[in-house]
Write a structure and sequence with these properties.
heterodimer, A: 744 residues, Aldehyde Oxidoreductase, domain 4, seven-stranded mixed beta sheet, 29 strands, 25% helix, B: 337 residues, alpha+beta, Uridine Diphospho-n-acetylenolpyruvylglucosamine Reductase, domain 2, Enolase-like, domain 1, four-stranded antiparallel beta sheet, 13 helices, 12 strands, CO_DH_flav_C (chain B), Xanthine dehydrogenase (chain B), FAD (chain B)
Chain lengths: 744, 337
């Protein structure tokens, strides 16, 4: 259990201060080695061949032409592959995977893009050229399930993903004011900058496997691969020093990693596979399409009396993924009668997986749009409606919030936005050819925390070293770890070296769920304190710099120890005692506070859209947000997460849609020209305020994590603004030009 | 990607007289290399023409502007002659692609640009343009981006160029150099409608090379506008675009030029609509009538029906802005993104 009131963090010196990324120079100068760029001696290149149908059987592969191509070393497929085991796919045991089916496991084709072979050659170009010569003969079958959006099928109920309190059906039936609406969201691609990549190298005569993987979880990847290959965990090392983002599709292992490692073992040379963008999009995860029905009941004053949220999302035929849309709903508003249900429908797509604010971002679009509809039905200001139903404690658990300031987010953002200038009448605000629409929505994301270990060294050369087996996926984890060390030791940031992204380091968490910050920093702090205890013992010991003093009387200051009168640097203390370094181990985990408080972040987005109806053009002009995430450890990178989420929300609201051919479920826009995401020119003017209320009940640093909340609510605020401009309620995402035209 | 023989041409005659099977010229390479990597185009010989002396822009005595084939899209868009006498072309160029692509892409290469039909770009799909006689997966497939004008039962792929729409509204002549010498082709006749032979995209014989594009003399005292409508603000092909030039006599339209992009299988000059505008008052009713005429033969498939009203909107707004001689700030900020 952490001491939540440590005086260190009431007035932090480094934590909470604007801190340039310590890895920024490496990234700018190209010295930060991403997995796809790595090269080891003797390395070969793999290029997967993927199915061109979405439903059927692979009858045969014609490999002669490909084998005859220059540089080809081997071609792996169903008839030429190692016998392996599936991973148990357990979250609790740390071996969850994104697709349990092993590559080439059978000859059935379940989705377009499924790997049917892996060509390995001396160069990338040779591997790709040969892969294009592989001829696959399929027996295509009719009846592919193309999309949740193109069927009436209901899917399978997931009992464990639903919840209920009170009597929502009866309350809805008797409600004075009702909303009953259905929402659809198209499947989306993560489109992370760096495609999935694996470099597998077997050592010690095939007994030991070293894998470089672009992953959000080196330990999950290691554990899953250990199960698949029947290796002891000690004989497997996973390394991921830099990750070009993931947005959730790199949390868990995919089949390409297994195929790469098998190829490396069977050939006896290291093999690297970087998925081309098309395969990354067909076979490396997606946010599944969703269909949601929301029923809201309220009395005439706007008090919610019933919330019923029923959702269905897609999963693949080879892996069950549940994108629980309703998980935030029970905690969102004060209401006695609330139920959520979740179904999944199997479709012939590559397996969906978590994508930034998984489930909740879809659910919040539906819920917050329904709230806007309720505000219209009540003729009530939507901000007022939300304030009226603000939950003062968590209505799902009945526990008090650790720290919640949604009311201040709503009022502060409304003020900065200029909400009071909004004329609520539809289409009433104009500027030249354009109609201006104002819309808003609340946002939320749970505040989780995981167990974590860390190690810190104080070294005689004056440097400090901190290590944890978590990852920096571009969000700034390296920097906040250094900030924590600097905060507790007083050392300069430039003296602090941070190592992340290796399974040889103390076990760290997934970079996911907005949990890394709150999980890692307390463990680092514990390791720093352990190292400080160690150096104090050294200092007061025989021949030490503070020989004979009381260790408890010493404290850390400016990269050394002081007894109040005299400060001696760590390096001098170590030199004096002829030591190269002292070591500190630390671990931290959530404790009793989880049963005493409910932990969740909240915020609000206000959006201005401009619609030129005579040319069917809608653009998001301005977004003003106030977000309460506790303390922002490094405010610029924290704000950057929210800003990035807002831009992603513009894509979700107006642009992004994976297009599956209605005849055969083939994904036809698997490239960055045809799958449309916002460009710089689409990014609105963004004003993000991070409220600064440290949440010491959550952890001693007071930060709750920030990676996901910024995306939630944005698409709803856009849809609500479009309603304000046009009077047309858009319940399906993305809101396309076709939809605008249909409503004009 | 298949291997190919690469060579550099050091003179136009050399390039044009070279008789090679399955040969392709490469300049900026922004279309060709992309499609070779996708295994859609499979040239056995690639002839690099970047060293040829085709990078000049010159004003001819008769007032026309001769543009060398290798002038980049960026240079052309910012060329003083183009900016002052053909602003609609400058706007069209800057509405296309991205700065990086425009820096590489050339004038003739843009004329030769291939369609963005996803089925054309996917060797596993049926496509009469890529593989004659194989069928068309777009007509009953995802055809949101496809043409409503100029299509056939064999192909409904859009010609994706913005530049060509601007040129169509100006009028131009192409100079072609081939093994049998030089000839000139009207720009309006260069691109072919797909008909039964969508794989024959243009009037260019084997071994022929576009060496120049000569724009008609500028329309005196014209107001003009290129309006591109698309899902996002930048870096996307048009869903519908319109290049308009209008010459007014008081409130009356004396001359008009109109071309459509994003909705047709080739750069689409709207001559009937132009004729109908002449002598009319420059008001919304006239513009809407012109739009009706421009789109009267439009035919929609399942997913591209929205393009008909969208293209009408593009016509009406582009004509309005051209007639006013000014473009509202809300539109200009996107036109060059």
């Amino acid at each position: 259990m952490n001491d939540m009131t440590r005086p260190d963090f009431d007035k932090p010196r480094v934590v909470g201060q604007r801190t340039p990324r310590i890895d920024g120079e490496f990234k700018l100068t190209g010295r930060a080695g991403y997995t796809g760029e790595l090269h080891v001696d003797g390395m070969l290149y793999g290029y997967p061949v993927s199915a061109t149908i979405a439903n059927g059987v692979l009858e045969s592969l014609d490999l002669d032409a490909a084998r005859a191509m220059p540089g080809v070393v081997d071609i792996f497929h169903h008839g030429h592959f190692e016998a392996l085991h599936r991973s148990p796919n357990s979250m609790a045991h740390g071996d969850m995977v994104n697709e349990v089916r092993l590559p080439f496991e059978d000859e059935r084709i379940y989705y377009h893009g499924q790997y049917v072979a892996l060509v390995v050659a001396e160069t990338f170009e040779q591997a790709r050229a040969a892969a294009q010569r592989v001829v696959a003969h399929y027996r295509e079958e009719r009846g592919a399930v193309v999309s949740l959006l193109q069927t009436e099928a209901e899917g399978t109920l997931q009992e464990s993903a639903g919840s209920s309190r009170g009597d929502p059906e009866a309350a809805f039936g008797g409600a004075e004011v009702k909303v009953d609406s259905t929402y659809h969201i198209a499947a989306e691609s993560h489109l992370q900058m760096e495609m999935h990549a694996t470099l597998a190298e077997w050592r010690d005569a095939g007994k030991r496997l070293v894998v470089h993987e672009s992953t959000q979880g080196v330990f999950f990847q290691r554990n899953a691969m250990a199960r698949v290959f029947g290796l002891a965990q000690e004989n497997l090392e996973v390394i991921s020093h830099y990750v070009g983002s993931g947005f959730g599709n790199k949390l868990f292992m995919w089949p390409h990693s297994v195929a790469t490692a098998v190829a490396a073992r069977m050939i006896g040379r290291p093999v690297k596979v970087v998925l081309p963008r098309q395969q990354d999009m067909t076979s490396g995860g997606n946010r599944p399409a969703s269909r949601q029905r929301i029923r809201l009941g309220a009395d005439r004053s706007g008090k919610l009396t019933s919330v019923i949220h029923d959702s269905t999302t897609e999963t693949s035929l080879v892996h069950q993924y549940v994108d629980t849309c309703g998980s935030a709903t029970p905690s969102f508003y004060a209401c006695d009668n609330v139920s959520t249900s979740q179904r999944v429908l199997e479709v012939n797509h590559g397996t969906p997986c978590p994508m930034r604010a998984p489930g909740e971002v879809s659910g919040i679009f539906a819920l917050e749009t329904a709230m806007d509809e309720l505000a219209v039905a009540l003729e009530m200001d939507p901000v007022e409606l939300r304030l009226k139903n603000n939950a003062e404690q968590d209505p799902a658990s009945g526990l008090p919030w650790s720290s919640k300031h949604l009311d201040e987010c709503l009022t502060s953002a409304a003020k900065r936005f200029g909400w009071e200038q909004r004329n609520p009448a539809v289409g009433s605000m104009r500027d030249g050819d354009e109609i201006i629409g104002y819309g808003m929505a609340s946002c939320t994301w749970s505040a989780g925390r995981q167990p974590c270990e860390a190690r810190v060294e104080l070294r005689a050369d004056g440097s400090l070293f901190a290590a944890c087996g978590t990852q920096d996926i571009g969000t700034g984890t390296y920097t906040i770890v250094a900030q924590a060390v600097a905060e507790l030791t007083g050392a300069e940031l430039s003296r602090i070296e941070v190592k992340l992204g290796e399974t040889s380091l103390p076990a760290g968490p997934l970079s996911g769920g907005s949990m890394a910050t709150a999980t890692v920093l307390p463990a680092v702090a514990a390791a720093v304190r352990d190292a400080l205890d160690a150096i104090k013992e050294v200092a007061v010991g025989s021949g030490g710099a503070f020989e004979g003093s009381d260790a408890d009387a010493l404290s850390a200051e400016a990269g050394g120890l002081t007894d109040g009168e005299r400060r001696v640097s760590f390096e001098e203390i170590l030199e004096t005692s002829k030591l190269s370094s002292v070591n500190g181990q630390g671990s931290a985990a959530p404790g009793d506070e989880r049963s005493e408080y409910a932990f969740r972040s909240f915020g609000a987005h206000f959006v201005e859209v401009r619609i030129d109806p005579e040319i069917s053009r809608v653009r998001v002009a301005r977004v003003v947000s106030s977000i309460d995430i506790g303390r922002a450890i490094n405010p610029p990178t924290a704000r950057n997460q929210v800003e990035g989420g807002i831009v992603m929300g513009v894509g979700m609201g107006l642009l992004e849609k994976l297009d599956y051919d209605p005849r055969d479920a083939r994904l036809i826009n698997a490239n960055v020209a045809d799958y449309i995401v916002p460009t710089h020119a689409d990014a609105p003017e963004i004003d993000v305020e991070l409220l600064d209320y440290p949440d010491f009940k959550h952890n001693e640093f007071g930060g709750r994590g920030v990676g996901e909340i910024g995306l939630t609510g944005v698409a709803s605020a856009i849809a609500n603004a479009i309603y304000h401009a046009t009077g047309k309620r858009h319940r399906d995402l993305p809101i396309t030009i076709e939809a605008l035209l249909a409503s004009s | 990607m298949r291997t190919f023989a690469y060579s550099r041409a050091d003179s136009v005659d050399h390039a044009a007289h070279r008789t090679m099977p399955h040969a392709a010229f490469v300049a900026g390479g922004t279309t060709l290399l992309d499609l070779i990597k996708l295994d859609v185009l499979k040239p056995e010989n690639v002839v690099d023409i970047n060293a040829l002396p085709l990078k000049r822009v010159e004003r001819l005595d008769d007032g026309r502007l001769k543009i060398g084939a290798l002038v980049t899209n960026t240079d052309l868009a910012h060329h003083p002659e183009v900016k002052s006498h053909y602003p609609v072309l400058s706007e069209a160029l800057l509405a296309g692609a991205s700065t990086q692509l425009r820096n590489m892409a050339t004038t003739a290469g843009n004329v030769m640009q291939r369609t963005r039909c996803p089925y054309y770009r996917d060797p596993a799909a049926k496509c009469n343009r890529r593989e004659p006689g194989s069928g068309c997966d777009a007509i009953d497939g995802i055809n949101r981006m496809h043409a409503v004008l100029g299509g056939s039962d064999a192909c409904i792929a859009v010609h994706p160029s913005d530049m060509c729409v601007g040129i169509a509204a100006i009028g131009a002549t192409l100079t072609l150099q081939g093994p049998d010498g030089e000839r000139e082709v009207d720009f309006a006749d260069f691109h072919r409608l797909p008909g039964d032979t969508p794989h024959i995209e243009h009037d260019l014989a084997d071994g022929e090379l576009i060496t120049a594009i000569t724009l008609d003399a500028p329309l005196a005292n014209a107001g003009s506008h290129y309006l591109k409508l698309r899902d996002r603000a930048s870096y996307e092909f048009a869903l519908a675009s319109c290049a308009a030039q209008v010459v007014l006599d008081g409130d009356t339209i004396r001359e008009a030029r109109l071309a459509l992009g994003g909705v047709a299988t080739k750069p689409w000059r709207c001559s009937d609509a132009e004729a109908a505008l002449v002598g009319q008052v420059a008001d919304k009713a006239s513009f809407e009538r012109a739009a009706d005429i421009a789109l009267k033969d439009a035919q929609a498939c399942e997913h591209n029906g929205y393009k008909i009203p969208l293209a009408r909107q593009a016509v009406v707004r582009a004509l309005r802005n051209a007639a006013r001689g000014e473009t509202p700030a809300s539109e200009t900020q996107e036109s060059q993104a």
